[in-house]
């Protein structure tokens, strides 16, 4: 079900759900500097602060009800009338045009995170700005939105309209955006529609989700006026769709890993039984499950990310902003053995075909088929967006003749397939990242199964949406990772004009 249009949407022609064409996506992926300059311009200054506030702010009694429900983790607590808020809303409460809730990770964005939080509270209201270290997205869904729904079911028309028109903005990096999207996605499985669409204020390092949906690739220089512009766009931006991907992992029991935030241990594994597993299976397995929105990767790129993240955690003073992060990341790439690999005999630096077998399901097919892994590939990426590693497009903008020859379709964030490509040695990856050449195209797939077996390899490196981990490998039993599309698409606000 589409989220309801606000009055401003109606004046602008309603909601659209078509994906942006690939040329536009390519331009957006390179637009961080342009967006920053635009943020410095007069556009943000022309937005009247009070008029914007009136479009965003919810009646006091609803704000207090949501706050109390979340604070006490009881959606019924919000049903108790607060005398002060009732007095403030003595007249018939008016439903705002675009009621907005903001989640902010104030630790992102360098030194601006805490200042941005104060600015947002001034532009909206304290109760509608949630610091992620204090209020988790699932608490907002479970208690805050549930409180509005209960008020609506009791006949409160203002609460009903506010819930239907609700929009969300996330001020943070890709990981934070994914976290919020995952929690909001639970509304689909619970039958609690509509799902609020999500806009972005980019505070991370890569910001690939933000780039892909027209919100820019970096925190603007003139951020105070740019914040008003972002909130204004969030009230009226068109709504588009984003595929999300469920990842299930089964590994031999007894191996230990430090999984990323997005990967949770579960009791059961959800591997497709229609694909026969060759060889023996261990008596017991450990199972993990998570969701990603941009990419999953294996190999050297994940190893570089793993080293960088540990360096940043151990020495946070070295990574005090996006520019410093990118410099450190580039330097770390040169120390991990991706370059000059042929001169080194370490098995972990050889091609992934030594440890990996891949099966895929193509679009509109129920049959699994094994695909060949090029011998020279040292990193494999399954990509959903055409923005990777801070706005690069390694898949490339392929010509119609090549697409037809390979049996590919033009890539979009909501097309139901992942683009699988490989990166060779560091020199090849460097040319791909500056878009002089495309990556090694392997396949497009609606479902993927990766099978890993150790041998000389004792570990491999993997990452989901920039969250890396070190995966132990067993020489006797395989580790399986299976990826399939989540039935419900995420709902995004596009930030273009």
From TrEMBL:
Phosphorylates the second messenger diacylglycerol (DAG) to generate phosphatidic acid (PA), another important signaling molecule. PA is required for plant development and responses to abiotic stress and pathogen attack. It comes from Trapa natans (Water chestnut). It is an enzyme of class 2 (transferase). The keyword Kinase applies. Monomer. This is Diacylglycerol kinase. Its EC number is 2.7.1.107. GO terms for biological process: defense response; phospholipase C-activating G protein-coupled receptor signaling pathway. One of its GO terms (cellular component) is membrane. PROSITE patterns: DAGK (PS50146). The keyword Nucleotide-binding applies. Pfam families: DAGK_acc, DAGK_cat. InterPro entries: ATP-NAD_kinase_N, DGK, Diacylglycerol_kin_accessory, Diacylglycerol_kinase_cat_dom, Diacylglycerol_kinase_pln, NAD/diacylglycerol_kinase_sf. The lineage of its organism: Eukaryota, Viridiplantae, Streptophyta, Embryophyta, Tracheophyta. Belongs to the eukaryotic diacylglycerol kinase family. Residues 1-26 are annotated as: Disordered.
């Amino acid at each position: 079900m589409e989220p309801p249009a606000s009055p401003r949407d109606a004046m602008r022609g309603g909601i659209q759900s078509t994906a942006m064409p690939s040329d536009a996506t390519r331009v957006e992926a390179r637009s961080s500097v342009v967006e920053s300059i635009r943020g410095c311009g007069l556009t943000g200054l022309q937005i009247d602060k009070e008029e914007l506030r009136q479009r965003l702010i919810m009646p006091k009694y609803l704000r207090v009800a949501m706050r109390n429900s979340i604070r006490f983790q009881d959606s019924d607590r919000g049903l108790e009338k607060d005398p002060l808020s009732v007095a403030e809303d003595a007249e018939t409460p008016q439903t705002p045009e675009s009621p907005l809730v903001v989640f902010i990770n104030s630790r992102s964005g360098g030194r601006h995170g805490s200042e941005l939080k104060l600015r947002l509270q001034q532009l909206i209201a304290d109760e509608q700005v949630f610091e992620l270290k204090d209020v988790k997205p699932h608490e907002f869904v479970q208690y805050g939105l549930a409180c509005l729904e209960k008020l609506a079911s009791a006949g409160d028309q203002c609460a009903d309209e506010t819930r239907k028109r609700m929009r969300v903005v996330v001020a943070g990096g890709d990981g934070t955006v994914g976290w919020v999207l995952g929690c909001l996605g639970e509304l689909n499985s619970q039958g609690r529609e509509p799902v609020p669409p999500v806009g972005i204020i980019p505070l991370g390092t890569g910001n690939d989700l933000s780039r892909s949906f027209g919100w820019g690739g970096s925190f603007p220089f003139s951020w105070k006026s740019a914040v008003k512009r972002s909130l204004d766009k969030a009230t009226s931006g068109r709504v588009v769709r984003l595929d999300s991907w469920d990842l299930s992992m089964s590994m031999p029991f007894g191996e230990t890993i430090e999984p990323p935030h997005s990967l949770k241990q579960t009791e059961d594994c959800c591997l497709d039984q229609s694909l026969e597993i060759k060889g023996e299976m261990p008596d017991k397995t450990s199972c993990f499950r998570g969701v990603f929105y941009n990419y999953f990767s294996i190999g050297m790129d994940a190893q570089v990310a793993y080293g960088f993240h540990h360096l940043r955690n151990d020495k946070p003073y070295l990574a005090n902003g996006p520019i410093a992060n990118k410099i450190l990341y580039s330097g770390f790439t040169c120390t991990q053995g991706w370059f000059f690999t042929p001169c080194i005999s370490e098995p972990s630096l050889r091609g992934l075909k030594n440890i990996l077998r891949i099966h895929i399901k193509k679009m509109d097919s129920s049959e699994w088929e094994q695909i060949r892994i090029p011998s020279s590939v040292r990193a494999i990426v399954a990509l959903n967006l055409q923005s990777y590693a801070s706005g690069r497009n390694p898949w490339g903008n392929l010509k119609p003749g090549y697409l037809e020859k390979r049996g590919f379709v033009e890539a979009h964030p909501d097309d139901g397939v992942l683009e699988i490509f490989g990166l060779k040695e560091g020199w090849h990856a460097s040319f791909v990242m500056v878009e002089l050449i495309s990556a090694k195209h392997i396949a497009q797939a609606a479902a993927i199964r990766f099978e890993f077996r150790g041998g000389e390899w004792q570990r491999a490196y993997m990452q989901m949406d920039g969250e890396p981990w070190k995966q132990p490998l067993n020489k006797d039993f395989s580790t399986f990772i299976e990826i399939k599309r989540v039935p419900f698409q995420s709902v995004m606000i596009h930030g273009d004009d």
